[in-house]
């Protein structure tokens, strides 16, 4: 999930190269994910002994949980 957030932050840095501090909210991050042509994650499922695909909605839910944990740790 960090990797997707890092991609978004890198795109913001390209859009605003002169800014030292760039802030955003989760809705902007989710819009970025929605606009990606393809965004999916493969997670290994022991029951299937195979990788199972998860799409954008799953990714957004996991990112939201991840960001809540990061914010709570600070």
Please describe the topology of this protein.
Layout: H1 2-15, H2 26-35, E1 41-45, E2 50-54, H3 56-73
Descriptive report:
This protein is α+β, with helices and mostly antiparallel strands. It has three helices and two strands; from the N terminus they run H-H-E-E-H. The protein has helices at 2-15, 26-35, 56-73, and strands spanning 41-45, 50-54. Strands 1-2 form a two-stranded antiparallel ribbon. The longest helix is centred in the C-terminal third of the chain and has 18 residues, at 56-73. 0% of the residues are buried.
Offer a few descriptive terms.
globular; single chain; 14% strand; 74 residues; alpha+beta; two-stranded antiparallel ribbon
Summarize the entry for a quick read.
Helices cover 57% and strands 14% of the residues. The protein is built from three helices and two strands, in the order ααββα.
């Amino acid at each position: 999930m960090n990797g997707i957030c890092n991609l978004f932050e890198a795109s913001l840095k390209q859009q605003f190269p002169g800014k030292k501090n760039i802030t955003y909210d989760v809705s902007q991050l989710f819009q970025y994910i929605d606009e990606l042509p393809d965004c999916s994650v493969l997670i290994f499922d022991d029951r299937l002994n195979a990788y199972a695909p998860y799409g954008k909605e799953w990714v957004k839910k996991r990112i939201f949980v991840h960001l809540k944990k990061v914010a709570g740790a600070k």
